[in-house]
Amino acid sequence: MTLAEPATAAASADLVSRFAPVFDEVGEGAVERERDHRLPYAEVERLRAAGFTRVTLPVEHGGHGASHAEFFDLLAELARRDPNLAQLFRSHFSFVDRTVLSPPSPERDARLALVAAGRIIGNASHERSAAKVGSYDTRLTRASDGGLRLDGTKYYSTGTLFADFTGVAAVDDHGDLVSALVATDAPGVRRIDDWTGFGQRLTGSGTTVFENVGVTDADVVRLRRGERPSHGSAFVQLVLLAVVAGIGRAIVDDAVRFVRARTRSYSHGSAPTAREDPLVQETLGDLDAARFSADSAVAAIARALDRSTAAFLQGAPDDQLRALVETADADTARAQLVVLPAVLDAATRLFEVGGASATDVGLALDRHWRNARTVASHNPARYKARALGDLLLNDVPVAGWWSTGES
User: Fold this and answer.
1) What angle do CA 9, 350, 239 make, to 5 degrees?
2) H or E segment to which residue 17 belongs
3) Does one domain contain both 213 and 319?
4) CA distance 379 to 375
5) Do 254 and 302 have their domain in common?
6) Boundary-marking domain end, from 191, 222, 253
7) Can you list the positions of beta strands (E) in 258-393?
8) Which of 111, 146, 147, 337 gets the most CB atoms within 10 Å of its CB?
9) What's the confidence (pLDDT) of residue 4?
10) Over the stretch 293-321, which tens digit does the pLDDT of each residue have?
11) How far apart are CA 135 and CA 287, in angstroms?
12) Residue 279 pLDDT greater than 70, yes or no
């Protein structure tokens, strides 16, 4: 299967079936890892060894050639076991997608070869600096010896603790935005595990420091906005939505497991056992419906990305690509307004299936809300609701690429 072919439900199921044993393995102990703050280095290596990091790489480049519809269903299955593992690969798979769709060149082939060799790519873009919106304090400068040097501090470096390389957004001597691919073990690179969010605690989303790090010209890509339309923004947002959808699946799993094992009941209950209680059954039905709505929204956007990918690979004109990308961006915003509230509500309603025993710290059922809420906070949905209103009323396209910084 190539990236241009539409995925089928059977193909997606086959891929999930193939990786399910590995996902079950790395999912073991996820609650204990979070409780003890044990970073999942071993689990990342197990996924690498199983070929997960190459799953979207085209077959001709040494990968599995999974479509977007297949991949995002697979990613949600990983998040079902451990959402930290699913999110920390966000920049890696975005890098693969972006590189596959870039113009043919020796540099492109070299980057795809890194992925084929099992290398993992992290992220170093966002800052907590005085830089204005759309710019960075991180600098890529030309040294007196003709080489390039990178200096700056990044935060929210999701996945970089586990990565072999990281993509660093910076400003060059001309004031242009650039991205440099830097080895994480290069001299002058420091990775710090200081992410203190109450959820997704093991994604490695802390600080990365670059001090006089040597960079080659071949490692640098100029970030020129306004060239060919790109669905890259929809892709990275869909990674987060797939993670939340996976949490929705886990909520249903845990609710069913809890109710089936429950022997205690209430004198004023509606049935002798919890599993026979119609009110508990109704609650579980609502949780499953929320899970279904999240899965459906993610699947719809994934199919949209398959359509835009096919158009890219077939050399479609820019106006056709732009229409596909704008639709994907708008639909991704709509999906945020469906997936996030559905799963967050389910993470709260989960506790309606049992009594105080559901709050036992050993069960860690609170992790679902904390993790979903943390992922949902990456890109405030209220802004997306307003953007959709502007689209409907004034024909203003939903913004694809956006940035943060000082106003």
Assistant:
1) 40
2) helix 9-27
3) no
4) 8
5) yes
6) 222
7) none
8) 111
9) 38
10) 999 999 999 999 999 999 999 999 999 99
11) 42
12) yes
CA pair distance 387, 403, nearest whole angstrom: 15
105 with 162, same domain: the answer is: no
Contact 287, 251 (CB under 8 A): yes
Per the prediction, the chain carries an average pLDDT of 93
> From residue 18, how far is each of 30, 59, 177, 400 by CA, in Å?
21, 16, 41, 34
Does residue 382 share a domain with residue 355? Answer: yes
Question: Which has the higher per-residue pLDDT, 10 or 138?
Answer: 138
Q: Enumerate the β-bridge partners of residue 389.
A: none
Assess whether 329 and 239 both reside in one domain: yes
CA distance 302 to 313: 16
> Is residue 81 included in any domain, yes or no?
yes
Is residue 322 pLDDT above 60, yes or no?
yes
Task: For residue 272, give every residue at least 6 positions away whose Cβ sits within 8 Å of its Cβ, in sequence order, or none.
Answer: 265
Tally of domains in the chain: 3
Residue 4 falls inside a structural domain:
no
pLDDT in tens, 138-179: 999 999 888 999 999 999 999 999 999 999 999 999 999 999
Domain extent at residue 84: 9-119
Domain's final residue, options 185, 200, 222: 222
